[in-house]
Amino acid sequence: MQPLEKTLRSRLEKTVKEARDVAESAALAALNQLGVGQAKPDGHFSEEEKALRRRLRVHGRQLGDRRDPKGEQEISRLIEEVAYEHWHRMLFARFLAENNLLMYPDPDDPVAITLEECEDLAADEGAANGWELAARYAARMLPQIFRLDSPVFQLTLPPEHQQKLEHLVTDLPLEVFTASDSLGWVYQFWQAKKKDEVNKSEVKIGARELPAVTQLFTEPYMVSFLLDNALGAWWAARRLTEADLKNASSEEELRNKASLPGVPLEYLRFVQIEDDAGDTQWQPAAGAFDAWPEQLGDLKTLDPCCGSGHFLVAAFLMLVPMRMELEGLSAHEAVDAVLRENLHGLEIDQRCVELAAFALALTAWKYPNLPSPSGRGVGGEGAIGYRPLPELNLACSGLSVSVAKEEWKQLGLGKKNLTIALDWM
Fold first, then answer.
1. Which of 15, 46, 137, 390 has the fewest CB atoms below 10 angstroms from its CB?
2. Cβ–Cβ < 8 Å for 183, 311
3. Do 232 and 212 lie in a common domain?
């Protein structure tokens, strides 16, 4: 896949920024309609509306909105949550649909479905519209991302705002949804306004502000350079023979010999060294990483600030063909093995964790099912397609403990030292 072209990136940036303004205005209007910030519900509310209002207030407090002694409650964090979830539900559904990965949940034979077909089926399936139905189908595929049990999805946005959001997402060109780095840009653009506000305010950076001001998208060439000269150098040191390293006439010759289809190692650098006898030999400029495991199944990679998963996806696209080549695995087997054993990510922003999971799943389902150079693996062209994936090793490291102290201490199971440690924490 190719990175997003600059003019399309600018168009995506403009669309996402506009979408955040529209979505937050819609969220404010919908929450005010239910009186979520008020101390008491209006008398004309139905029991269903009162129940939804209570759930939204509880959810807001879980997000950090404060309730004062009189019962009135902030809704600023809840507004952000509603806006984000409703917009990204539509955006992610189109990502899946444009890659033929939005699946109609036939128990025997799931089949790809378009957004237009979702609109046609919505009424029969009991959904308000095609976007809601698309999100319902997507939730079956990635339940950790599309949390339809959240009360924010029971909230209906005003029609005029909903229509604006629909137009914004449908007007984006197809190329946006097939580029390799679009997901990363999507969240950076979403956070851009918040980042500017925080920087201009000169307030002390706290937990709420940190994700916005620390988001920094790494350009594809930077990711490739770092991985080529780490994982790629490890691979080259084991794939190239001593004769290759002694007799090669250029770095390009060594890169060509070390590369695999889909893993060109174009940024891998070599240097020439001279031994005691005065003979020269090439070696990877970054070294051979001799302390790393000899078997790729034992290699653990961790991105401690994984963001939207850009490094993880790039490492995945290198490791899968490497494991197919070294271990004789099929594409299916290699994809599962890499997700299960090799890739790990941490991130302080829960939304980034969800984006990283979405990006990895999308890449895994789209992975080309091609044979390895040695002839091993499954032959034939095309993508693997949708199927259940191993549990992804991704976690949010920025969540606060939100239980009562005594409940937290019970995790000590009566063991004195552990209980004391939990009490201190």
1. 46
2. no
3. no
Instruction: Compute the distance between CA of residue 205 and CA of residue 215 in angstroms, rounded to an integer.
Output: 13
Tens-place pLDDT, residues 236-286 = 999 999 999 999 999 999 999 999 998 999 999 999 988 777 788 999 999
- Long-range residue pairs from 6-15, CB within 8 A, at least 24 positions apart, any chain: 8/173, 8/175, 8/176, 8/179, 9/185, 11/172, 11/173, 11/176, 12/172, 12/176, 12/182, 12/185, 12/186, 12/189, 13/185, 13/189, 13/192, 15/168, 15/169, 15/171, 15/172
In this prediction the pTM is 0.81
Block residue for tokens 């990635």:
142
- How far is Cα 287 from Cα 315, in angstroms, rounded to an integer? 19
Per-residue pLDDT tens for 64-100?
Answer: 999 999 999 999 999 999 999 999 989 999 999 999 9
Does residue 113 lie in a domain region?
A: yes
Do residues 294 and 280 both lie within one domain?
Answer: yes
Q: Which long-range contacts (CB under 8 A, 24 or more apart) does 329-337 make?
A: 329/376, 329/377, 330/377, 330/378, 331/367, 331/368, 331/369, 331/370, 331/377, 331/378, 331/384, 332/369, 332/378, 332/384, 332/387, 334/377, 335/364, 335/367, 335/384, 335/389, 336/389, 336/390, 337/297
In 3-state terms the chain splits into helix, strand, coil percentages (rounded to 5) of 55, 5, 40
On whether both 375 and 259 belong to a single domain, the answer is: yes
Are 173 and 305 members of one domain?
no
What the block records as the tokens of 1 is: 């896949």
User: Please, what is the Cα angle at 92 between 90 and 94, to 5 degrees?
Assistant: 70
- Which residue range forms the structural domain that includes residue 366? 218-400
| Angle subtended by helix axes 130-141 and 76-98, to nearest 10 | 80
Domain C-terminal end among 216, 242, 260: 216
Say which residues have a Cβ less than 8 Å from residue 396's Cβ, sequence separation at least 6: 346, 347, 348, 349, 350, 353
Average confidence score pLDDT of the chain = 87
